[in-house]
Amino acid sequence: MRQLVIGLMLLISITAQASDADRLKQAGFPAQVEGLALKNQAVLNYLWADVYAAALYGPKDLSAKQAWEQQKSLRLTLYYFRDIDRGDVIKAATATLERQQTNPRLKPEIDKLHARFRDIRSGDRYALDFRPGRGLNLEINGQVVFSSSDDALARAYLGIWLAPEGLSDELHDKLLD
């Protein structure tokens, strides 16, 4: 019986890995974008459902972790597999930022960023593009919908995925590996 359970667990694990590979292929992340190279990609699963695929881009000569730690240019792209109400996205982001003890000074800018969100539809692509000195752009389906020159806002908001105590430890680890 124990061997059967172990075999089923391995089969589920292999199937899940194949599913993630298929999902990443579906997301179609390019190897380079806007002068940055694809560093890592992963699928966020919640309650056995694929929510989105994430791709992290950074300078060619640095690892993803080095780019994050050294506050270099980064681009995080999310390709959504499901419809999600904007209120749910804002609620999850706010809870994560509070858990990470984000500087309260950033709240007005975070509120402006959240005001630009819309209900997410399957196939939508959101991107957070950070360039030191220029700040942060939020893109929805290739259109810049929000910009801020505040590098601290960029660090805090990208931290939802890349800093400790973020949305998902597993996603964090895969993106910064």
Automatic annotation (TrEMBL):
Entry-linked Pfam families: Chalcone_3 (PF16036)
An annotated Gene Ontology molecular function: isomerase activity
Signal peptide: 1-18
Protein name: Chalcone isomerase-like
Domain Chalcone isomerase: 34-176
Classification via InterPro entries: Chalcone_isomerase, Chalcone_isomerase_3-sand
Protein species of origin: Pseudomonas orientalis
Gene3D superfamilies, alphabetized: 3.50.70.10
Record keywords, A-Z: Isomerase, Signal
